[in-house]
Amino acid sequence: MKPTSTYERQPDVICLSHLRWKFVFQRPQHLMSRFARERRVFFVEEAVFDAKKPFLEMVTCPQTNVRVVTPHLPEGTNVNRALQTLLSDFLSRNSLQGFVLWFYTPMALEFFPEDATPGAIVYDCMDELSMFRGAPPQLTQLEQQLIQKADLVFTGGVSLFEAKRHLHSRMHPFPSGVDVQHFMKARNLPPDFNEHQGMAHPRLGFAGVIDERFDTELLREAAERRPDWQFVMIGPTVKIAAESLPRNPNIHWLGMKNYSELPQYFAGWDAAIMPFALNDSTRFISPTKTPEFLAAGLPVVSTPIRDVVRPYGELGLVRIARTAEELVTAVEASLATGMSMKWRERADEFLGSLSWDSVWQGMNRLITAGMSQPEKTLTAGSSSLAQVGPEGARV
Fold first, then answer.
1. CA distances (Å), 263 to each of 153, 202, 296, in order?
2. How confident is the model at residue 393 (pLDDT cuts 50, 70, 90)?
């Protein structure tokens, strides 16, 4: 993709992420891909420890034009000091100043050069990371510092916004969007893609990260209650032991799949389930899979996650179940009634306002409106957007 003159005029984006670019294609990937249509985007991943000498590797993603920057460090390195040195040199070599500095993790404050001169600092708080298993003890304090420094704070859901809105005057809820056209393909695709061949119906599916937010016992009990149902689980398993997963013969663990393949898998399901645990790690989540399943034309049953109950449950777009017994009953009701045309029309109308393009456009308007203010150092307090209204290879 050859940059246009508009591309050249737009400030660069440096995104500091705790999630790797080639992990599950989710909020960071969707947003940064859209920024990369009109400007340079540098997506800085966490370090890997496989080098004799510290260096940065930069690879441009051919599908999105995002420049993925991966630090390579020796084992035993003082990580923050090494990263600060590498990134200072990187900023100088690439003439980076006046850029949008975009944080997904407050931990990046420990190593990003303090004398950098971003034109705006954005914290996209997609989850309450401090409540995740293995969260660093200093995360909460660093988040407080980041919120003080940030010009804009976005949250990945309404409940997270409501919990943090008192911390910053320029905080905005941006629930994750959906690529409607991508997932609508599932409505017209054959049902027996890859592992689905020969698998009995009904098939109930889930796609997402399998971690401490996933209620494995709820899944186990539901599978035991209905051994004639097939439970298809797609996604990587992280932070929990693989041997702890239920191994009922009707539970199929298919592992991580490419984002491009998901509609083909969804086409083979009769309903989607979201068996999230009800614990601290799910208190503020806003699952991206909810609108994706609906776009695929699937009836959805979820545990009572707040940002699913409101609005999806209240609008009658998702059935809510707290126990395995309730989940089975809700799925039975979904299978019996199917997808009425009226239900599908209501779902499609609601999804029309949730596109990733509209999420990105709303964020970009807020950022652009304040970028005419003077540059500042990372150590300065929030100021440049304070008065802006909501419309407004080795290197």
1. 32, 17, 7
2. very low
